[in-house]
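Quick illustration, no need to memorize.
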Amino acid sequence: MKYLQIFLFFCSALYTAQDIRSVQLFNPQTNDETPVIGFNEQLILRFDDLSNSSTIYRYTIKHFDRNWQDDGLFFTEYANGSLNGMIDQFQYSFNTLQAYTNYTLTFPNDKIQPKISGNFELIVYQDSATKPLFTKRFCIVEDGANVALNITRTSDARNPQINQRVEVQAVGNSSAMNSNLNSLSLNVIQNNNWNLGVYNQKQSSSLGNKILFQQMNLVFPGNNEFYYFDNKNMNQPFDMVAQAETVDGVNYTYLHPVWAFPLNYQYQPDVNGAFYFRRNDLGIERNAEREADYSWVYFALDSEKTNKEIYVVGGFNDFKASKKNQMTYDETLKKYIAKIYLKQGFYNYILATKNTDGTLNLGEINGNFWQTENLYQAFLYYQPFGRNYDGLLGYGEFRTPVR
């Protein structure tokens, strides 16, 4: 009897285990995956639970310093309201092979409101915030400075793959910038990828209420335009999809293979690594939140076998390498293959190799070109006089191709 109880408990745990997928945090005003808002704006969080349960999840927020390190602030120092809130707005999937529950949270709301600017994490959990199901970064920005970026071509014989240089100009809108000049610093990231950034840059010069960041180390690899695919219609092959099929109630999407090491740059419009869920049946656009289905997506790279670890990365997995998105070599097909379970829609992705220090190289396979269009984002931090936290004084971004 004892063993039967243990077995039933184990089975119950398996049955109720969460399988959280398709996490999005975006600005509904711009439909943009960049989670940066002012005090009077809101973000929308959406995710799916493939266990198809009606679990009530909870969330809280945590403030961090300019380097995304714990700054030790208490909740009451950076937010008003309750320590945690409930995510109780959900809907069940409809007309899909994969059953799931779609959750939505509009934030900030009447439960929790950040009261200072800076870096935050939204923490989603079931039982304890110390055991989160997932976290998503976001920023609250003040209207303390206008931040403008300019991107130019650069070359460096010592670093031949670094070929886009960022220059930043900040103009203060109030006395906050001029009265806190010594505490100002700048972080710049590329394509919403927090792993690819230049941090803690001090001003190179100033003139009145204008400060400049023109350091030679504000440089980034140009990489290449993102690959993409669109499987909004899974009944037949679509954009960059070679074959689509449904076998035993499971969808499969096979992408056209891509090639490594291109010799020349070719302009291809992209969304800088972002992704959007969509379902379109015979010209009818469905409600992707609850009607978009799931599919095993097969990624393929035509290549000889190498000693490099290769990963499929993009905004959909926060540009992080894991076993779930690692490619393996098929000796028969002479291709690298990855199989990832994804909600249908439009995706940008890129193939990354892993460096010896664990960082990812996004240009080794895809190519590296100064002409590539990238999204650059500049964050101007300061420590308000008499305060013990890093605030975000201004934010700016640049999306125009280098010419």
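The first helix runs from residue 2 to 16.
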